[in-house]
Write a structure and sequence with these properties.
mainly alpha; MetI-like fold; 70% helix; 0% strand; globular
């Protein structure tokens, strides 16, 4: 093996090791036991593997309720953003209408506004709509976004127009072209956008913390942050809850990766 390639493999191994070390520490800490005064072994490897931390996380706090709230909110936001991004991106990429470039520029300029600057106006609007402590209040400000529209527009612009023109000549409407021609070829972009949107909604902490007052409406990230405040510092339980909160993101990533590879493999169009 050439020395250059060996050095590259060693560097990549070291980087992967450092990246996986916090997750490995979290998993190993979740398998430790606590004694009567709620202290546990501070060594790297647990002296005895125990799943009591997972049991306490599921029984002493409404963890499953928090998880259900996070799943519902993340799925609603992801599906809504996919729909709105596809429609907006296709309109900006293929439909000719007056002021299209100006509207797209104004739409895109919203990406330059920090999210912190919109929290107070969004909260006032949600409060006036009487949507505090509701799923609508958690999801309404995030049902559409400029990043998704920009991403899908760029992807649609890279697609050949000849397929769409042929479908229109055969009698398809624009909506049929979008549904039958464009969307099946857009699976890689949809998978990537869905993954980014799901991760952002799942990991969102600030907005649910502000908009939710009832315990039963907390999302998983807010519930995790309050574990130490609500209870004793039970670190194995907190690490177990963190491990379970990370699993959906890993599953979503692996699912999107598989979809992305299959779409690139079986599609008949090369971009």
């Amino acid at each position: 093996m050439p020395a250059k390639r060996l050095i590259t493999y060693i560097v990549l191994f070291i980087l992967a090791l450092f990246m996986l070390m916090p997750f490995a520490w979290m998993v190993l800490s979740s398998l430790k036991e606590v004694d009567e005064v709620f202290t546990y072994d501070m060594t790297w490897l647990p002296s005895r593997i125990s799943f009591s931390g997972y049991y306490r996380a599921l029984t002493e706090q409404p963890f499953l309720r928090y998880g259900l709230n996070s799943v519902l909110v993340s799925v609603i936001i992801t599906m809504a953003q996919l729909i709105t991004s596809v429609l907006a991106g296709y309109a900006f990429a293929r439909l000719a209408f007056p002021g299209r470039n100006l509207i797209f520029f104004l739409y895109l300029s919203a990406m330059m506004i920090p999210s912190q600057a919109t929290i107070i106006p969004s909260y006032i609007l949600i409060r006036k709509l009487d949507l505090i402590d509701s799923y609508a209040g958690l999801t309404l400000p995030f049902l559409a976004g400029p990043f998704g529209a920009f991403m899908m527009r760029q992807f649609f612009l890279s697609m050949p127009e000849s397929l769409e023109e042929a479908a229109i000549i055969d009698g398809c409407t624009r909506f049929q072209v979008l549904r039958k021609i464009v969307l099946p070829l857009s699976k890689p972009a949809l998978a990537s956008l869905g993954l980014f949107t799901f991760m952002g909604a799942w990991n969102d902490f600030m907005w649910p913390l502000i908009i939710i007052n009832r315990d039963t409406m907390r999302t998983l990230q807010v519930g995790l942050s309050l574990l130490r405040a609500d209870l004793y510092p039970d670190w194995p339980m907190m690490m177990a809850a963190s491990v379970m909160a990370t699993l959906p993101i890993m599953i979503a990533f692996l699912s999107a990766q598989k979809q992305f590879i299959e779409s690139l493999t079986f599609t008949g169009v090369k971009y």
